[in-house]
Amino acid sequence: MQQRLTHGEAAALGEVYDRFASLVHSLAHRVLDDEDAADRVTREVFAYVWEHPDSYDPKQGTLRSWVAAVTRHQAVQRLRQTEAASARDGGSEAPEPAEIEQKIHEASTAARADYIVTSMPAPLRAALELAYFQRRDYRQTAADLGVTEDEARRRLRLGLQLLSTARTHQALPPAHRAAHPAPTARAPHAPRGPRPPHSPYTGPGASAPPGPGHGRSL
Fold first, then answer.
1. DSSP reduced 3-state for 2
2. Which architecture, in CATH terms, is 2-176?
3. Phi-psi region of 8 (alpha: psi -120 to 50; beta: other; left: phi over 0)
4. Which DSSP string corresponds to 96-147?
5. How far is CA 152 from CA 118, 134, 138, in A?
């Protein structure tokens, strides 16, 4: 897929969009809590994928994880811009810069946690969803899943170990990473069905990947 994108194959971008559009929109919405802003970030992410396929290094992880990292970076940047604009307009009631950064870090961490939950093996995800979203204890989780109590505890323990990485994982893609203090993780949201975002090529307000003068054109 990377080679096809590097060679400027527009169909490859369409396939990447079909595979990851819902993921991108969901993560962007988790950070921004705004449908229109999530739509804009979705378009920006796929424009970035089209313009910079060489920034994906298969040795560092899957294409899905790279797209998710790009999404978190774009969403966090937009949230930072939005919060800065609100602070300028807020006058004396504007939050302190440290409060803004804490909010941004928490939103980014929550998006990372959501991504981890949707990416983990189904048995671990099912155990976490029962324990945290439906408030089952490990005995009830074991009964619901039809496994032993020891197995339920094992799945919950492994799931929590994976989730704990959301606190220390840097949300920026490799080319843009910078050190940040680890925020306190918010609990992941239960999986939700986001409104399907517009295609990066068509739809109200959509913008095509940059054309001549700004990079490659389709």
1. helix
2. Orthogonal Bundle (1.10)
3. left
4. PHHHHHHHHHHHHHHHHHHHHHHHS-HHHHHHHIIIIIS---HHHHHHHHTS
5. 19, 15, 6
- The span from the CA of 1 to the CA of 114, in Å, is 25
CB atoms within 10 A of CB 190: 11
Q: What backbone phi and psi angles, to 5 degrees, belong to 206?
A: -75, 150
What pLDDT shows up at residue 182? 34
Q: Enter the pTM of the model.
A: 0.61
Residue-wise pLDDT for 129-186, tens only, equals 888 778 888 899 999 999 999 999 999 888 888 877 766 654 444 334 333 333 333 4
CB contact at 8 A, 56 and 2 = yes
**Does the structure show a pLDDT above 50 at 11?**
yes
Spell out the domain ranges in the chain: 2-176
User: What is the Cβ-side half-sphere exposure of residue 46, based on CA atoms within 13 angstroms?
Assistant: 32
Residue where the block lists tokens 């991504």 = 115
Query: Residue 169 corresponds to which tokens in the numbers above?
Result: 């994982």
Distances (CA, A) of 190 to 133, 152, 196: 6, 19, 18
For residues 192 and 104, give the distance between their C-alpha atoms in angstroms, rounded to a whole number: 21
